[in-house]
Amino acid sequence: MVSLEAPINILLVDDNPDNLLALEAVLEDRNYNLVKCLSGEEALRSLLKDDYAVIVLDVQMPGMDGFETAKLIKAREKTREIPIIFVSATSKESEHFYTGYSVGAIDYMLKPFVPQIMRSKIEGFVNLFVSSRKLQIQTELLHQKTRELEKMNKELMRTAYKLSKTEAQARVIRETSIDTMITFDNDGKILTVNPALERMFDYQEEEVIGQPITLLVSCFANDYVKASVNGSTADGAGNGKLIQITARRKDGSPFDAEIQLGMAMVDEEQIYACTIADITERKRFEKELLAAKESAEIAARAKTEFLAMVSHEIRTPMNGVIGMTTLLLETELSDEQREYTEIISKSGEALLSVINDILDYSKIESGKMELEEVPFQLSACIGETFDLFTVKTTKKQLEMTCSIDPLLPAYVEGDVTKLRQVLINLVGNAVKFTNEGSIEVIVSLKADYGSEIVVEIAVLDTGVGIPADKLPLLFQPFSQLDSSMTRKYGGTGLGLAICKNLLELMDGSIRVDTNREKGAAFIFTVTLKPHRLSPQPDVDREPEDDDYPAYPFSFSALLGEDEQAAAAENNELQRSEYNILVAEDNEINRTLALRLLDKLGLQADVAGTGKEALELALQNRYDLILMDIQMPAMDGREAAKEIMDALPEAEQPVIIAMTANVLAGDRDKCLDAGMTDFISKPIRFDMLKNVMQRYFTLTGHKEEGSIARGD
Q: What is the pTM of this model?
């Protein structure tokens, strides 16, 4: 029931604090409780807690505007009848009037409003609210009195037949229940049973009446029954609680049962009631369910092991194919030889991309994909993505541009690897399906919650576009728009499905803009955290200004002066003497690793098994060991653990895992074994060079303090 003595609640919603102060000034001399909210979301939360006489709602707000807020208010039964007065400074008067009234507004005022008119309108709605509440109170009082009279009348009528009705109900329950129902006295003698006794125990009623309860429930010794209803038994049984036991039929055969015990006082005498349910089928189902769960777990483990085996068995020869073709392309070749070699290289990369898609989707499907949270620069992430496609866009003469909202912080925290993977997939598709025109990436701030921000990124192209009837297939795994596109453009049909799953993992979503006349537009959101050291955005910019500066994108243009200078130095390793061991059982991959090291001016010893690697590591002091994981006799992880346990800390080498296993958890397993870092096959020259530069200085000595687990 609503009290009219307290101040009347009025909700004021406007993203501009000055506007809220103006409204407060107009209404401050009235006995109103003014609740001020800066957003639609905040207003909706306030409506969950309190009742309001009227809502004054700004139209244009960031995030959720006034129209969207009004729709949600009117969709909720409790708030549906609250009057809404829209206030707007827009020039589109008629259009907004129509929209405002269509979403449930009862009035619409333009800024700047006339204070007297605003005050009088609010007073009118408050008077209606007060009148409505008075009527409601009177109606509820009348209903209460009516209910009291009806209750008294029913009590009088119920008294006449209460005993007979109770008895009839009890008889129906007893006779129709599939559970056995028994009552017995304080001495344990059975007083009554229902017909279910015969079906469950094969006893007739006359065979058990007056007999001890232990005839049916052997554990019901007198002391146990009393302790059970008092809740003091060792098995935790208590009055009304369920207890599982093994019961026996008349012929002595056991069955699983569940009993419920209670006690009541009847004519100052303790009477016990017991319900017994046969749970044989339930137990059987539980066992089958447990067996099915174990089978599913075994199948899941087998799937994971199979994927690991497939990954290793395919990536190992791929390492040789891609690595050797890379080296071959750097030698003197005729035009024809170079063409053939480039075809081999591109085919290898295409096959590797297919493998990566399948493995990524399998990891997501099994729930083993985990998020990382590291600080990174949004512009750098996009720039790195653009740089990957510079050659292709130059060849096609495509223009690539990017626009970044100045309200976004320069640095954010999140999973940059997965965000880059989504960008690479979408930008790669845009490049693939666009033969002329441009590709544009627009980055904007969708919402700012303080500790988290929602970033919206749109990837637009002027390519072949997407037929409307094919849109439902876009984010389905293993689907292509049509078979001719598969032949013409290639791909597994997993890319967009992976993007969708990765974005949902990062509290985001993805959609397609269907209103474009030419090309395609993929728009996705991702939830990130502002980095605490990030410079503050330009707060003077008007929220309705959507024209962000667009400029041709280049990764080098995004780097600071120090970063550009460092990048320009080429940073090659000086030719120095390092003690290096390559542990690899595959001859081709072993040769490839040696050739890549030779390009860096480095020589290495070789081991064909983990055991041989252990023996050499204990005989020689190595600075670096490139360790394959799957080797005969002793695998790489076991060999690494033995080496690290056997050597003092000052003599421990940097051990880099080289493996074709790229499933979730592989990196952690390598680090747990004492390895320093992890690189996946196929190994490329730049990958190896970066690892060397990460752990060794240019002067030929290991960098102090740089060898840290998980770097």
A: 0.39
